[in-house]
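Hello again,

I reread your note about wanting to compare the complex against the isolated chains. To keep things tidy I'm splitting this into two emails, and this first one only covers the full assembly. Below are the input lines as submitted, including protein chains and any nucleic acid or small-molecule components. They are followed by the predicted structure of everything together. The single-chain runs will come separately.
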Amino acid sequence: DIQMTQSPSSLSASVGDTVTITCRASQSIGNSLNWYQQRPGKAPRLLIYAASSLQSAVPSRFSGSGSGTDFTLTISSLQPEDFATYYCQQSYSTPYTFGQGTKLQIK
Amino acid sequence: QVQLVESGGGVVQPGRSLRLSCVASGFPFSNYPMHWVRQAPGKGLDWVAVIWYDGSHQYSADSVKGRFTISRDNSKNTLFLQMNSLRAEDTAVYYCARDLRGVGASDIWGQGAMVTVSS
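Full-complex prediction:
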């Protein structure tokens, strides 16, 4: 199975900041990497698919990059509603494993 | 609107069975692969299984292989997860999710169904 490792596990930032979350795959997955946001008590929301494609209706302050084994999610100009937990997921091969999550908290 | 609604969750004893259902509406269900993803209390997301749009292929996580079966009834726009030999570690919120065709990402999610395995 492909292991996905996110860093950091938690992150504190302020409204207006730019933050970057990293995801590393245990083997090359091409661009088969997706990013999700999850707010407490809610279902996950797809933000980015295929490493860098912005899902419909997701604000442009979210962006993704990378290929192979190393990927990043960047959130620019943080808004209050962005404070949540973020997960990466590989969809290169089953099982479609998730990273352990990154909790973004208000500083 | 595009919607997924799960049902069938509850409290069950270890070793027993439970079947979850997920009814889809607002999109051509038979055109999309579908997933089950779970989340144990306070933990991260855990992919469980996927089924092809026509039911021809199914894949599941090793942790549930041989115990859980994903299936679908396209005539009723419904996805199922049959869970047998349940264990305490299967306690989680179970989400059904639509596959973003050809990508493997999940773009539409249900609200989740809580399954608690406890004696």
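For quick reference: The radius of gyration of chain A is 13 Å.

B.
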